[in-house]
Specification:
Layout: H1 6-9, E1 18-20, H2 22-34, H3 43-50, H4 62-68, H5 70-75, H6 81-99, H7 104-111, H8 123-134, E2 138-140
Parallel strand pairs: 1-2
């Protein structure tokens, strides 16, 4: 029979979260989120389908989604939500290409026409998203 003391059974130090800047956290999120996208899938669509990150298109109810993409709805007022999301997804992908950015979040951080992109989220929210996606905890410093 082996006898183990409490000190031996429990580690003396708990794992600590890494401290990084907001800029580094966004860089890391880009890498993780880009894995979920392709030529036909924007992060808005991928996040909505998986219920992760900001929840993409799914973060908005029908009325709010139509308001944010009003210029699309005005041309086809009878479209279904699914049709609107498909067109919005294509539009986000086209914007990424035009602006030469890796994710819709980068476009929207500049354009802020359908959302605010990265600027919609606090450091704490971004760190939580990163933890949800990777299982790794980070603390964001004040440096940007």
């Amino acid at each position: 029979m082996i006898h183990v003391t409490m000190e031996e059974a429990m580690p003396t130090t708990l794992p600590t979260a890494e401290t990084i800047t907001r800029k580094e956290l966004i860089r890391r999120l880009r890498v993780e989120l880009a894995i979920l996208t392709d030529e036909e899938t924007s992060i808005c669509k991928a996040a909505a389908e998986r219920g992760i990150f900001c929840n993409g298109f799914a973060r908005y109810g029908d009325h709010e989604l139509k308001r944010r993409y009003g210029w699309i709805v005005r041309k086809r007022p009878g479209m279904t939500r699914e049709e609107l999301e498909a067109i919005a997804n294509d539009w986000q992908l086209a914007q990424q290409e035009v602006h030469e950015t890796p994710l819709a979040c980068d476009v929207q951080a500049k354009a802020q026409d359908t959302c605010g992109g990265w600027t919609d989220f606090s450091d704490t929210e971004l760190a939580r998203f990163y933890n949800e996606i990777t299982g790794r905890e980070v603390i964001v410093t004040g440096d940007r």
